[in-house]
Amino acid sequence: WIGIAGAALAGCSRQKTSATAGTIRVSAQPYLSMCGLYLARELGYFAREGVEVELQEGLNSVQAIPLLAGGRLDVSFLGLSPSLVNAVARGALVRIAAGREIASPSCGEAGFLYARVEAFPHGLSALKELKGKRIACTGKASIGEFCLDTILGGTGLDAADVDVILLRRNDAVAALAAGKIDALVGFDFAQTLAFRSPRIVRHIGLAGILPNFQYSYVCFGEKLIQADPEPGARFLRAYLRGAREFVAGRTPAFLEKFARANGLDPKAAREACRETVAVDGAVNLDSVQRFVAWGVRKGYCPRLLQPSELVDARFLARSAREVRG
Amino acid sequence: MKLKSALTAFAVPVALVALWQVCASTGLLNPLFFPPPAVLFLTACKMARSGELAGHLEATLTRLSIGAFSGSVLGLLCGVLMGAAAQLRRLLEPLISALYSSPKLTLLPMLMLFLGVGEAPRILLIATSSFVLMSMHGLDAVRSVNSAYIDMASNYGASRAMIVRKVYLPASLPQIFTGLRVTLGRALVLTVSVELISSSSGLGSMIWMSWQTFSTEKLYIGVILSAALGLAIHTVLRRLETRLVPWRNG
Questions:
Q1: How far apart are the C-alpha atoms of B113 and B117, rounded to whole Å?
Q2: B249 pLDDT band (50/70/90 cuts)?
Q3: Residue A144 CB: number of other CB atoms within 10 A?
Q4: Least confident of B34-48, B129-143, B146-160
Q5: Strand A52-57 relative to strand A23-28: parallel, antiparallel, unpaired?
Q6: B48-84 tens-digit pLDDT
Q7: pTM recorded for the entire structure
């Protein structure tokens, strides 16, 4: 028992796992929206900035934030979440360093409502018809729930007017296809095979209610925030260069491999709209504020943090200065 | 004697909690990830006063009771019958063995497709797991009964039903109780796991939400409550066993 306690203490001390001075530990969920990062790696932009990137794939926002807060990760590409807000509120050295994706009115798959045609015999012409329906959301206290509340709010409804079912992404897809739910709200469902069926229609998305809402960010952890801004700035410079090239039309090898591995059409993935990625990395403070206010209203966040408490603008400013210079 | 026994049982957990409190208070442990036990206690009191804890506990206990009770009773009956009737055993044992080895949580998406997205698939999953475990234990319990007892009862003219009631069941009780402890423990684990991935109520859901919102105090409270529930189930069964199977401990 004493040995176990001792081991736990050693493992949980404030000492961080080692990382070389030039190594930045990055987490990102491999998806099409991460192409800018992968392109920057493939084209050697990080190496040119003197940054060695140690990439850890597969961690979602909720998993990454404790690691950022505990110094076991330096950078994470993640979505807005109450977990991020609460970590900052509790004194963790985690900050938003740059903006990433927006809900573009002209393209993208951000927070769309997909409905089963049979559940709306006269067509889903007015969103008020959602009242009383079973709508799946892929997680409570998530950007998915925010999107659902935003869509419902736009029609004068709220979560109490519908039957919100919590289902993981793949379970939600299966449930909609099998008719167990009437609709779902989420991200990036268009590429899913089941959703190419004429029995499932796409309706309004987050951009329809909050055009250009910024929902994902680049976050920095303790090591970069406490140090001189230069390494963080260099990282951002390299990443943003990759993002600009991606939006301009260059495609990383990662995209083809990812599409094939996940049953997506590589051609469709290559030709999909890319303008949801913020190429200047600017942080939309209004989006951050709106999300925090929602989190406080729902009881997920203890207090209304100001965007300035969540955002550290030094790195972007330094990286932009160097580019202009 | 009883007091000394209780003190011994609690000595190590209390010592660990005290050590944790000292380390968290002095900064040796990061309070972001290891909130002091005193803070956990205060948060638990706040959650109890607001009714949040009671709500989650009720949801977990409801699912656990319905699923585990129905599954265990049917499983025990099936196991005893399989033990008493060789033909039935040959018919059912391969299926039950296959189900025993498969991770039950993987059945949840399929059950949701058949039964929809409410409580039915969750409770059925818990019941299925309990059924399979109790069948195996019931079967083993019956097969371990000394055949001399059965022969003797038969020789004295006991009917099949009487042999089951008066010989098989009492002789199997110790092993049945062991099976019940294992079954209910696993049912609790499965209940919390199901709530982690697909529910908005229950201890599992509370743990998941606290992870989603970086509320580490609630995370610990959820885990500790789950463990306490397991301990309570184990203790109740032990007391019941002492009453119903007094000959087990001599």
A1: 8
A2: low
A3: 22
A4: B146-160
A5: parallel
A6: 999 999 999 999 999 999 999 999 999 999 998 898 8
A7: 0.83
Sort A14 into a burial class: Cβ within 10 Å, 0-12 / 13-18 / 19+.
Answer: exposed
B230 neighbors B188 (Cβ within 8 angstroms):
yes
Say how far apart CA A129 and CA A120 lie, in whole Å. Answer: 8
Structural Rg of chain A based on CA atoms: 21
Q: What is the pLDDT of residue A13?
A: 42
- Kindly report the nearest CA distance between residue A39 and chain B, in angstroms: 30
Instruction: Using a CB–CB cutoff of 8 Å, tell me whether A170 touches chain B.
Output: yes
Q: Is B25 helix (H, G, I), strand (E, B) or coil?
A: helix
Is this prediction's ipTM beyond 0.85? Answer: no
Confidence band, pLDDT 50/70/90 cuts, at residue B2: low
Give the contacts of B31 (CB within 8 A, at least 6 positions apart).
Answer: B24, B39
Indicate left, alpha or beta for A212 from its phi (over 0: left) and psi (-120 to 50: alpha): left
- Straight-line distance from the first to the last Cα atom of chain B, in angstroms, rounded to the nearest whole number: 19
Q: Which residues of chain A from 47 to 76 reach within 8 Å of chain B, CB to CB?
A: 62, 65-66, 69-70
